[in-house]
Amino acid sequence: MAFWNRTKPIDTATQFEEHHQLKKTLSWPHLIALGVGAIVGTGIYTLTGLAAGLAGPGMIWSFVICGVLCAAAALCYAEMATMVPAAGSAYTFSYTALGELLAWIVGWALVLEYAVGASAVAVGWSNHAQEFVTWAHQSGWIGFDLPKNLTHGMDLKGMITGKAVFDPSQALLNVPAAFIVLVVTGLLALGTRESATVNFILVLVKLAALVMFVVIALPHFNAVNLHPAAPFGWGATQHADGKNYGVLGAAGLVFFAFYGFDAVSTAAEETKNPKRDMTLGIVGSMILCTAIYVAVAACALGAMYYTGWANNGAPLVVVLKFLNQPEAAQWLTAAVMVAIPTVILVLLYGQSRIFFAMARDGLLPQAVARVNPKTKTPVLMTLIVGSVVALVAGLFKLDDIAEMANAGTLLAFIGVALSVIVLRLRQPNRERIFKTPLWWLVAPFCVLGCAYLFGVGLTHDTKVLCLGWGVIGLVIYFLYGMHKSNLARAGA
Hints:
Layout: H1 28-39, H2 42-45, H3 47-55, H4 59-83, H5 90-97, H6 100-138, H7 156-160, H8 175-190, H9 192-217, E1 237-238, E2 244-245, H10 247-254, H11 262-265, H12 274-303, H13 315-322, H14 326-339, H15 341-360, H16 379-395, H17 398-426, H18 439-457, H19 460-484, H20 486-491
Antiparallel strand pairs: 1-2
Helix pairs in contact: 1-9, 1-12, 1-15, 3-10, 4-10, 4-12, 4-17, 4-18, 5-6, 5-17, 6-8, 6-14, 6-15, 6-16, 6-17, 6-19, 8-15, 8-16, 9-12, 9-14, 10-18, 13-14, 15-16, 17-18, 17-19
């Protein structure tokens, strides 16, 4: 069979040898916490400031646009995850519907979503860690402050494109970002059930911090601060600094704040009752987080004019200080430091399971797909992914990482929506525990919406780097995966 026609039968997609099987330990509360743990994080705590600098009060509409688009994607994910309850998320779904080559492309794009996304979250955590250490130093609690060049990664994207120069006195390595990734990697290697329980507790801490912010900021809401509604326009206009300004331009950035619900689908194989719990986990976490985002963004914009906190790495902390709530600001900072690592945990979890699935299918060396006999988790794959993510987090800037992660996510969403369309047409009578409502409208809307946001919302440099990443992936596939995959060897 030609490589472009190889597809994995759905009926055998969950059948594996014992040393390649994951342990079923999760239920729907863990899955909702997994989704919320991934979604609520750097996007609302950190990227809100960057988005305000691009769209002003129009940032609220940026969140709404991304929320609607991700809702369509979430419905497609729920249908596919209940049909194919196996590790691998969009990669595995694409393998059963679109074929091996497109599955590889989607899986390679997921590296940008999960691994690069985890790096972005780590940088966001580092921003709050710097804020906390500076406050503790000024308060006399500790006798040191963090040097700037060890808390900021280099502008590698700017250096590659010739828009920045290397200055080791200003930016060299983001040590706190790399450190937190390594800590979370160690926790994840201990086991899925243990890390999911820790995640559940920390998600409650994270949500409590956002509730505190809304309770404090809402009484100070002033509608005057929301005008003009779109000072940089409603579209996406690239300025000399290489950034896309406007509501759609900000949407291309804050899209990062919404994905995470798809990480729930990577846990399908470790879920006790995937046919029920997958739907609750994916759709439930998406609805809950969309409501939270709009409420927090509206309160921040209404309490303080956006120019006062735009482009700040800890925008909600700045707003609380402006409202003369320094203690609440420090509590928020502490909560973020404790709870944002849950996002890193979920994204590292998702990436390790995707690589695990690709290796189990033979597209990557199968030796790294073995599960530890004691923890029943892919420990070696987890450690490899964590080390690479720590390196990226230490070297790159936040906005550059976030946009690259968005590019990979948009491509993955397109792959899942296309999988729904293809299987609906090819196998219309197959049992579907969850059916995407109005699939003929929702799935094409997801494809076209993601493609449009990719083309309009992302910067030119990001699209060029994404293309380069895709070329690297294709080279690896044609040199290794095309000949070594299980389907290729079965055909031979």
